[in-house]
Amino acid sequence: MMFISQVMTRDVVCCTPEDTARTAAILMKKHGVGAIPVVADVSDPLLEGIVTDRDLCSRVVAEARNADDIKISELMTSVPVSCEPEFTLEACEDLMQQNQVRRIPVVDKRGRCVGMVSQADIALCAPAPAVGNMLKEISKASRPQQNIHLQADQFYCGQLHEQDEILLLNRRRELRKEVEVVR
Fold it and tell me: Does some domain include residue 150?
């Protein structure tokens, strides 16, 4: 049995509700992440929310708003789904599926953010069938799916982006096994 503490990212970059959307976007780009926990104070990281790249895209860019004028408190999801380091991978996977989220802040018993765990973190450790089921459940449409209308000269691979990620993760797992066998 594996625990979240074994797969989570510990060095988490955080922002506060008073930071701007631009600050969050810069942090996401610099650290290559798609979500940032929002904490009351970086020195005492009591989790207050989470802001994602999707929040920035749909509530700042799509509305042509000035990222310097928007506080994170306007964008963040307050009281986000979270887990503790002692949760099993299966328990965290269930949380992701039930809430249709791909990233979850990890908090200690006092509610302080001590890490982040992503769908990819779990996928690298879980058996392939479980990964497929997790992807299926997390990716369920919350409203009816719209038909995709493509122009003749557009390229579409026929797979959802998340399915491509899972294929890549499974390939990496296979390569790791091959390296272990060679050693």
Answer: no
Interhelix angle for 89-99 vs 128-138, to 10°? 30
Q: What is the pTM of this model?
A: 0.69
Domain count, the chain: 1
Q: Which residues pair with 117 in a beta bridge?
A: 104
Six-digit token string for 99 = 């809430």
> Are the C-beta atoms of residues 99 and 106 closer than 8 Å to each other?
no
Q: Indicate which CATH number applies to the domain containing 78.
A: 3.10.580.10
Residue 17: inside a domain, yes or no?
A: yes
Cβ atoms 115, 45 nearer than 8 A: no
pLDDT per residue as tens digits for the range 93-137: 899 989 999 999 999 999 999 999 998 888 887 666 555 665 555
CA–CA separation, 120 vs 170, rounded Å?
11
The span from the CA of 163 to the CA of 26, in Å, is 27
* Structural domain range at position 21: 4-143
Element (H, E) at 58: none
C-alpha to C-alpha distances, 39 to 35, 64, 115, nearest whole angstrom: 13, 26, 12
